[in-house]
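Whiteboard transcription, Tuesday session. T.W. wrote the structure tokens on the left side:
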């Protein structure tokens, strides 16, 4: 194997043996360098240094777990040790996935850039609704590990950033050896919860359009990591001028693959005068009350109330 196959390092909390020779490591490595065999550790952890090495490894190990900050994986463990698959590819040394660029039209963020570093860009460089959402992902210790790509790419779960990025028309770059493509964040998760990624594809960048909005609102109750908290996220965007709605977007999420959004309602509200007529608000609320399945009464009530509050408080200009 090539030099980047495995760089053995000692794990602070140790290694747990599972069936046969398989082992699972529960935290990031802290020291050491050299060779390590699957038999020694049970789980082969690869540390590519470049994007090219990453894509080559992803092709050679199509079933490997792509490990970025690992916060979701560690959160879901049922014991002291995370239960990792036989092959793991860590992104921690791939600096190409931690770059940021900004133009007049877009903000591009590397998929492995920690949330902490995105917040460090400041509110003037990050859309307000996204900035507010990222602040709620976790405390400083979590934000220093969690990444935007990782927050997007959890199968079966819609985590904090996804509804906001969807509303902003953000896209992700998907790369594999020899090809690349762009995919809307709103399409990353299939209706059944699986990811719309081909074999060996890796999320490398997130491209976020920069548009002027008169109001950007984000609210969250509970946590998607704790279903018993009845989580609900809400995001609303509106652009108004001279007491007219020029564009409006509303989305809600209960952590389930299906978003709570009605493009028909959004289209109907464009061109309406502010303040919106009670009839227009009532019609919109009636539609939003019927969206989504699997919501608890509390989740649905919170979402509908937030929609109503948002529509009642649209700025005139």
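and on the right, the sequence the group agreed on:
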């Amino acid at each position: 194997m090539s030099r980047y196959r495995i760089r053995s390092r000692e794990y602070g909390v140790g290694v747990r043996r599972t069936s046969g020779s398989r082992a699972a490591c529960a935290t990031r490595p802290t020291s050491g360098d050299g060779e390590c065999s699957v038999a020694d550790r049970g789980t082969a952890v690869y540390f590519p240094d470049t994007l090219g090495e990453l894509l080559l490894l992803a092709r050679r190990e199509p079933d490997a777990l792509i490990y970025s900050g690992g916060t979701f994986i560690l959160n879901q463990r049922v014991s002291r040790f995370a239960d990792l698959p036989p092959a793991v590819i860590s992104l921690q040394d791939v600096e190409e996935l931690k770059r940021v660029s900004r133009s007049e039209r877009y903000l591009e963020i590397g998929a492995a850039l920690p949330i902490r570093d995105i917040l460090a860009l400041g509110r003037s460089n990050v859309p307000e609704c996204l900035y507010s959402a990222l602040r709620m992902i976790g405390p400083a210790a979590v934000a220093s590990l969690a990444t935007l790509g990782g927050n997007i790419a959890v199968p079966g779960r819609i985590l904090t950033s996804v509804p906001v990025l969807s509303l902003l028309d953000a896209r992700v770059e998907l790369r594999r050896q020899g090809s690349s493509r762009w995919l809307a964040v709103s399409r990353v998760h299939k209706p059944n919860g699986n990811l719309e990624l081909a074999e060996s594809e890796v999320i490398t960048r997130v491209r976020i359009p920069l548009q002027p909005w008169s109001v950007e609102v984000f609210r969250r109750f509970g946590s998607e990591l704790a279903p018993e908290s009845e989580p609900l996220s809400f995001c609303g965007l509106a652009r108004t001028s001279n007491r007219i709605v020029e564009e409006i977007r509303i989305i809600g999420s209960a952590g389930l693959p299906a978003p709570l959004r009605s493009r028909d309602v959004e289209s109907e509200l464009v061109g309406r005068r502010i303040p919106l007529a009670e009839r227009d608000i009532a019609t919109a609320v009636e539609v939003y009350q019927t969206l989504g399945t699997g919501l608890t009464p509390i989740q649905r009530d919170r979402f509908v109330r937030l929609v109503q509050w948002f529509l009642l408080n649209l700025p005139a200009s």
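Someone added at the bottom: Residues 1-41 have pLDDT under 50 and may be disordered.
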